[in-house]
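hey team, just a heads up i'm posting the complex here instead of the shared drive bc the drive is being weird again. everything in one block, sequence lines first with there labels, then the predicted structure for the whole assembly after. its two chains so it's a bit long, scroll down
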Amino acid sequence: MTTTEPTNIATRPHAGIRGPRPTTFIEAPRLSERLGAHVTLAAETFQHTGSFKFRAAYHVATSVPHPSIVTASSGNFGQAIALACRLTGKRCFVVMPETSARVKVDAVRAYGATADLIDTRAMTREARVAELAAEHPEAYVASAYDDLLVIEGNASLGREIARSGLTFDAVVAPVGGGGLSAGLIQGLRDAGSTTPVFAAEPLIANDAARSIREGHIVINEQEPPTLADGARTRSVGRHPWTILQNGLAGIIEVPEREIAEGVRALFTLANLKAEPTGALTTGALLAEPGRLAGQRVCLVVSGGNVDPAIYARILSEAV
Amino acid sequence: MTTTEPTNIATRPHAGIRGPRPTTFIEAPRLSERLGAHVTLAAETFQHTGSFKFRAAYHVATSVPHPSIVTASSGNFGQAIALACRLTGKRCFVVMPETSARVKVDAVRAYGATADLIDTRAMTREARVAELAAEHPEAYVASAYDDLLVIEGNASLGREIARSGLTFDAVVAPVGGGGLSAGLIQGLRDAGSTTPVFAAEPLIANDAARSIREGHIVINEQEPPTLADGARTRSVGRHPWTILQNGLAGIIEVPEREIAEGVRALFTLANLKAEPTGALTTGALLAEPGRLAGQRVCLVVSGGNVDPAIYARILSEAV
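-- predicted structure starts here --
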């Protein structure tokens, strides 16, 4: 009935964080049966701030000497950089459209960062970032994906996969700006692994696949309205491109229907809550079941942050 | 682009299972903030068959010499014993009400067990188990909770918590039949830990709490209609009772509203999909926030198997 040494650290619950959390490997026999491959999930849904983005954000925040960081993000990178700045004692400004989901704005603010809300009809995010950078010349301007530090930060996931003691014939990761897939390739190769890396991209946002086919970076005319909001980037970044161009084993283009079915399959067959972008890799095996059939595949589930109403709607949809 | 040694084990995805999977510890800073305690989740949602029940089932199946096992379960124990029998080459009969969710019947059958469907208006489960045991005198009759082997099997979770390297002021686990909480106490004490164990029980199914208060096993008149279907047992088992009676530090009775809110809090603040019974421990801290305030608490999330429609409805409810 009695307890010892109450610690009262609940009031500073992030105080103990000393870097990214190792990924969570989950073997998923029932999902394997459904997908026709021997699947292991590398879940970044339990990473700090709920997505792999914390790997890059923490690496940026601990690598640059600047006392403050400016970035634009309406998604996972914003939360990740906000927490990373809080842990490293830096000021942080996150430019977000004023139409961003309240829960995302609140999360950025909860980590002590300034959510800089703009009317995107009146001003682009890039322009506002430039303004803030001019106002704060001491600040580092961070990109969510087009930054060598971001790729280096994400490389830690590749090294963890290479050193996991598990053997894979292929690793599949979502591609949006390319920071994750490029980092994975770099990390696997750093650790001496030659395992091929495939990217999974929404079919309606397939600029990376078109870029590979055409041999140069192709840019979407506008932000594609895919359910996988982490892959709504208009193009891959220049830094990731130098790695992806020759480093990817292939890109699997995933229709929206298979992205949603991927969310449901992870829920039903692996008990894993994934955001739609995180389910792209499962969707890839649903969309092209022959591609990696019978192989030992590591599916990277990049994050788990999804609005409950959107998630409930996806679960409730007929297949 | 090329891959080596395709393994084709997707057709036998359970072939590599050699015992229970270690629990998944998840530190949850945002959930900690919400609950006012420093919370670490011990998630059994990624355990084989999606709940802690596999620990007991595997221990039973590998301990008894009988070539077949008979049990009654419409829930997680049925799936767990079915897989455990498949892995150990035993025949398996699971008595289930014919009104059981199709998905649960299918899961039992998918593991190669016989789902023995009965009309519970015409015959009790106990009577049908007795019939089957008479028909199959070579069979071991397994209880989902009132069996020393079940308690021993679940004790492995207590040993894992004790040997995790993490320090806790309290462990909280759901209580239904009592097999999990009794096993946890036994496992923690086996490993030399004196950490107090609290049980979380649905308020409308509070036979264990009433039993502790009255000093003897109290039996619910009928199966209580709690959302936490894993805790719908009419009473704790006699074997668990001998451990729980003096071994529990306390029982927290959780109203239905806090059970549902626990499911939502795990979803929103920890990216964890839990079944309502698995969310009882989170609900306990929501229901009695003062009870373990500021302490280092291990919340056992006992399982993740929940029908998508029920889960979507819980997510969509206003708080």
